[in-house]
Amino acid sequence: MKGKTREDKARKNGLSKTQQVLYQKEFKAANRMYNDTKNQV
Whole-model pTM? Predict the structure, then answer.
């Protein structure tokens, strides 16, 4: 888990600020969709 977090940080640092925001929005949207699907089942 820690190693993955470190990798994610390094990857995010390589992105521009706009890309970071888009990445976070996509992640949150995907997370919400996943939770909605989980709740339906």
Answer: 0.46
Conformational region of residue 18, where left means phi above 0, alpha means psi within -120 to 50, and beta covers everything else = alpha
d(CA 40, CA 16): 36
* Token pair for 21: 């925001």
Among all chains, which residue has been given the structure tokens 């888990």? Answer: 1
Angstrom distance (rounded) from CA 7 to CA 32: 23
Helix (H, G, I), strand (E, B) or coil at 29: helix
- The model's confidence at residue 20, banded by pLDDT at 50, 70 and 90, is confident
12 close to 20: Cβ distance less than 8 angstroms: yes
